[in-house]
User: Fold this.
Amino acid sequence: MSPKNTDQEEENSKIDDIMKAAQQRFGQYGLCKTTMMEIATDIGLSKAALYYYYPDKESLFEAVVLKEQKQFLEELTSAIKPGTKASTLLLTYVKKRQDYFDRFMNLGKLRYESMSTSKPLLCRLSENLLLKEQQLVRTILEIGVANKEFKKMNTQDQAVFLITMLQGFRLYAVKMQNDLVMSEEEHAALDENLKKAIQLFIRDISL
Amino acid sequence: MSPKNTDQEEENSKIDDIMKAAQQRFGQYGLCKTTMMEIATDIGLSKAALYYYYPDKESLFEAVVLKEQKQFLEELTSAIKPGTKASTLLLTYVKKRQDYFDRFMNLGKLRYESMSTSKPLLCRLSENLLLKEQQLVRTILEIGVANKEFKKMNTQDQAVFLITMLQGFRLYAVKMQNDLVMSEEEHAALDENLKKAIQLFIRDISL
DNA sequence: AACTGACTTTTTTTGTTGAATAGTCAGTTA
DNA sequence: TAACTGACTATTCAACAAAAAAAGTCAGTT
Assistant:
């Protein structure tokens, strides 16, 4: 039985401690290269204690990722104010999404071989976000259409296309990176491309 | 010493035979899963004879890839006729490039582990193509600008951006494929995205 | 309820060995 | 002498086994 594992903030500081340590470890060394032992000792607990709070490593990892996703989605949701121009919202979306990408990159960092092992988990987590992301982008597009800022369109298809395009640039950037970590210039180039792409897209759907 | 290994067509049919067999084998089984022995016996030669014509496996593979690249580039170059609309040329480019992608996908097919081993070779070959591809796309864009079909622009930057964007969609498609080989639907989705993307791009640069 | 230490199970790493393949070369052939 | 071959060596790979490390469990303590 696990204790109250709810999302109530500020409640049980122990879970908070665990999350912090896990976030730090996963963020620095990635999923594979972080052990439960390390996380436990980081906060002065025994490994077994971790298993009292989380049934397994995947669950802990998932909790960390979900937290990051939640933050991204909340930031974005709160940015969607009635008065804002839809094109501005799209720009905000790209920016926030990129922040999330940067964080997730590290979290999921894994060796080539074990890629297949942890793929299902990573996929599940990505898909989870994707659906909500689609919904949010769709909402933005619908605001634009309602505003007469954008043409009438199939907002579902357009949202999927946009997300795919931006993800394509990210994959390209990851593929092109020499080191295991993205350099400053490589990152700047990615940002440049994303900016260009979203402008292209906005131009296409604008009235 | 290797014999005349020039590009003169129809000359030495032996090299042609080797290339055909290699193309067939590499195309079906990929780089790793093809042995020099197989290629040799396919055309009734001893393995050692292959090494008379090509110093090593990589050279042979490279020759095959270069041949495919040459074909792609020539087809594209010959499509660039003075009278043609630049936007039509861009559409042709996307199509031909996709044909090349399909062929190359098989050629380079390799197991996950050995990816790191043969990466340098694959990278070198891709970069080789990239430069020529950039030049060709640039030429098309310049035709469009000269035609007053496209706006004035930095054709170099735009060519690089376009190529990156299209490659991004391809990477996305590869990433999303479940099997080691792309399914019919996955392929269709990729084509759809590329089509959409190039239209977006054309729309952006059109006057 | 919140933990621990000692335990078992699973996964990863390392090392070894035989087989498969890459690559070499002295010598043959036409 | 260009075009090859057979027999060789050198690498690389696959398949196991043992050792080490990490995941995950649990009876018992505070």
